[in-house]
Amino acid sequence: MTADSEPRYPDIEIYLAKAPVEALNTWLGEAIGADPLAPAGKGKWRARGRLAGNEIPVLLVERAADGFASLWFDSAQTPWSNDAACARSAARHLGGEVRCSLGGWQPGDEPDRFLQVLPDGRETEIHWPDSGR
Q1: Exposure winner among 1, 9, 17, 39, fewest CB in 10 A?
Q2: Residue 122: CB partners within 8 Å, gap ≥ 6?
């Protein structure tokens, strides 16, 4: 299956080893035209992006899993068709490690298998138990 033929996920979630708000604001602004992240409770931030006339709600949860922040896009209308594509973009633009699920989860799948993406482009499948899922 090629990247162009991969199904589009209904939402995107990635995990960031570092989540500097200013760098995230820049990346989200460029990628989805998002407003700056705004505090939404203890350790939570929200923003809304817009792409091709579609609204994209964004939620950042600091320290969601093993010190990683969760970044969730509640829309299928992102510029990325799946979590891995988003993770690659985030790692490159934010200069840090990013993790995501290996694919759309189905009953019977191993829930602790993730893709680790490094800023230099290296990718590895990892076992990440209790990742907050």
Answers
A1: 1
A2: none
Other CB atoms within 10 Å distance of the CB of residue 52:
8
Q: Which three-class secondary structure state does DSSP give residue 30?
A: helix
Q: How far is CA 5 from the centre of its chain?
A: 20
Helix count and strand count (H, E) for the chain = 2, 8
- pTM value is 0.89
The residues facing 126 across adjacent strands are: 114
pLDDT of residue 3: 47
Instruction: Assign 109 to helix, strand or coil.
Output: coil
DSSP-based helix, strand, coil % in the chain, nearest 5: 20, 35, 45
| For residue 94, pLDDT beyond 90 | yes
- 46 Cβ contact partners less than 8 Å away, ≥ 6 residues apart: 37, 38, 40, 57, 58, 59, 60
